[in-house]
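SEQUENCE-TO-STRUCTURE ENTRY
===========================
What this section holds: a protein sequence and its matching fold, both as plain text.
Tokens: labelled as protein backbone structure tokens, with as many entries as the chain has residues.
Question of interest: how does this chain fold, as expressed in backbone structure tokens?
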Amino acid sequence: MIDLAKMSSQTQLIELHPDVKINAIISNGPTTPSTSALTLPTIIFLHFWGGSSLTWSLVNPLTSASYPTVALDFRGWGDSTGPDAKDAYSISLLADDVEATIAALKIRSAVLVGLSMGAKVAQLIAARGKAPLRGLVLVSPAPVIPLILPEDMREQQLHAYDNEDSARFVATNVLTASYRERDLPEFVVEDMLRGNRWARQAWPAYGIGEDVSEGVGGISVPVLVIAAEKDVVEPVERVQTEVCARIQGSKLVVLSGSGHLSPLDKPEDIAECLLRFLGEFCSHGVNDSSELSIRW
């Protein structure tokens, strides 16, 4: 497991409702006094279906030295709690939780970084325009429009995390591209199995089919989209047509050699993309990520 002490982090369990408590791993950012420290945005990490705040644990130490960060567990995942109700894990409700958590933590300026399902949530939050966002980073993003799965594929997803063997197979052979010949971090499978039954079922049952596209075309903050060359879940072409094309001015980076879970396959590249993107509009006031050095 991750040594939070080495990350200079603290955990906080935030009660939003009696049956919804959101776990947050909080890093306070630069420890050296700086005139800009109080104005730095907080990076807020949102995980994929089957993950937790630990999904970002290889990236977070590389970014938290420069910016404050908050890695969240969605309701029903990781150490967060959620209702005992099958319809309580929609994309809209997950977005409500993130907005409420931002308010509870008194975050005045944020950059949302969402992975897969977390990126669908992030797009909805940005489209609503209620949260104090300065930027948006979408990593292997699920589109905001509905995706209707064939029944056999839907059944496979519903049972993908039924046991350790199936979860490990999915993680190594479908979601990542670099762990077939090296050990997968143990937290990956643990996270998949820890999700409560309604959270695990919600994405294939109805979350992936939820239409949250209203207002996405009006997103006005800088947007960086990171796709992965070997992603079989959200292929580069679909990311281009279903995500980038819907968000005016978004910039696309394609990570070579990475699968769907690039924070595990290529954490250094993800961190470099984030730091360069944030540096452009935090340090230089430029709302454009076109000069990134990562291949795109």
Q: What stands out?
A: The longest strand covers residues 9-17. Strands lie at 9-17, 20-27, 42-46, 69-72, 110-115, 133-139, 223-228, 251-255. The longest helix spans residues 267-282. The chain has ten helices and eight strands.
